[in-house]
Design brief:
Layout (H helix, E strand, L loop, with lengths): L15 E4 L2 E4 L17 H4 L36 E4 L15 E4 L8 H23 L2 H5 L3 E2 H6 L5 H7 L4 H22 L8 H14 L6 E2 L3 H18 L5 H16 L10 H21 L1 H6 L2 E4 L1
Antiparallel strand pairs: 1-2, 3-7, 4-7, 5-6
Helix pairs in contact: 2-6, 6-8, 7-8, 7-10, 8-9, 8-10
């Protein structure tokens, strides 16, 4: 197969012209070994002009001829594309397998600030003071804290849905809930602010407690923040799967399932514990996580940081 080639024009020796890769120079062809016959003189040989090298490719400047003040950046080479941007994946990146973007940080990557620590502090303070009043306070005041179907639905004392979450049966009950609430509130408030906790989690926890009381006899009293604890856990784990895109979906699900089995599944069954409240709180938390993500998806995605090679 023969391809047509256009002969490149002759340029004087040392002439430099611009090409697709910067300034380029035609390479000189050495003189032939055979001497010209006597009586015939090649005007180009006599004048010292060299023949230009013919090729389909340009030859770049040697390393010694390259300007010293221009750094050799990897971004200047054809086919290399590198960059960082925030939010959604923008236009302009090459669509090649070697340069696929990936998430390097999300809103869950940042360290919670002082506001998260303050949210933990005032929450634990409310739980401690209310529990102390429930244990050693005036009898009339302590009796107004627990929630039951009779007091909430028949007498209409709906404030008990909130006070019952703050009061605890004994110090062991308070300590066990406080440990996990500290971790969940610190992470939730630090990543999503007060919109998730307390303004969304606390009212929804009260509704979950009301649903729990519907399944119990009217005289059964319920105290403790276990329902809110499981609600926050369900919301956090759901948002973790949806937000933490630094890991694959499979790895996120494995971590969530492992945390659920190790931390949230009880190792023993005790009759005084309301496992119904745990299950209902977990279900409401999953719903809260899904609704929160759908409502604030654009804001959450804008907090992502992307890189590509």
């Amino acid at each position: 197969m023969t391809f047509w080639r256009r002969r490149k024009p002759r340029w004087p020796p040392g002439e430099v012209r611009s090409g697709p890769y910067g300034e380029e120079r035609f390479r000189e062809v050495p003189e032939p070994d055979a001497l010209p016959e006597e009586g015939s003189a090649d005007p180009e040989v006599e004048t010292g002009a060299e023949e230009l090298w013919e090729s389909d490719e340009f030859t770049q400047l040697e390393a010694s001829d390259a300007p010293e003040d221009e750094p050799d950046l990897e971004e200047d080479r054809p086919g290399a594309f590198r960059g960082v941007f925030f939010g959604r994946f923008g236009s302009g990146a090459p669509e090649t397998a070697a340069s696929q973007p990936h998430v390097v940080s999300t809103i869950l990557s940042k360290k919670p600030g002082k506001d998260a620590a303050l949210a933990v502090g005032w929450t634990l303070g409310i739980l401690l003071v209310t529990s102390l009043l429930y244990w050693w306070g005036p009898p009339g005041f302590a009796a107004a804290l627990p929630a039951s179907g009779e007091t909430v639905f028949e007498k209409g004392e709906t404030w008990r849905l909130v006070t019952a979450m703050a009061a605890h049966a004994d110090p062991i009950h308070l300590l066990s809930n406080a440990v996990f609430l500290t971790w969940l509130i610190y992470l939730s408030y630090g990543a999503f602010g007060s919109s998730l906790y307390p303004w969304s989690a606390v009212p929804l926890s009260a509704i979950a407690l009301a649903v729990t009381l519907e399944g119990y006899p009217p005289n059964i009293r319920v105290v403790g923040a276990s329902g809110m604890l499981y609600l926050l856990a369900g919301a956090w784990l759901t948002l973790y799967v949806l937000v933490e895109r630094r890991l694959s979906v499979a790895k996120r699900i494995v971590r969530v399932v492992g945390f659920f089995l190790v931390v949230l599944v009880p190792t023993s069954i005790r009759p005084e514990v309301s496992y119904r409240a745990h299950g209902i709180g977990l279900f409401f938390g999953i719903c809260l996580g899904l609704a929160y993500f759908l409502a604030r998806r654009d804001t959450i995605r804008q907090g992502e940081r992307w890189e590509w090679d």
